């Protein structure tokens, strides 16, 4: 269980370092069910390490 959490944390760290915000948003959209869109926008933006305004722009493009 600890190893699984370490792998997830490493994957998230590498994603933040190497992927663009658009790629991180697309990955989140693919990995989670449609219901994740009900989460408040500022929390999703914080998780993706982007501003809520930019998240709004990404959502409108998709």
Quick structural summary:
The chain is about 75% helix and about 0% strand. With about 60 residues, it is mostly helical. The radius of gyration is 12 Å and the shape is globular.
Can you walk me through this structure?
With 62 residues, the chain is mainly α. 74% of the residues lie in helices and 0% in strands. The protein has 4 helices and no strands. Helix 3 (41-48) crosses helix 4 (52-61). The longest helix is centred in the first third of the chain and has 17 residues, at 2-18.
Indicate the topology:
Blueprint lengths: L1 H17 L2 H11 L9 H8 L3 H10 L1
Summarize this structure as a short list of keywords or feature phrases.
62 residues, mainly alpha, 4 helices
How many DSSP-defined strands?
A: 0
Helix content: over 70%
Tell me the span between the first and last alpha carbons. 35 Å
Cα radius of gyration in angstroms: 12 Å
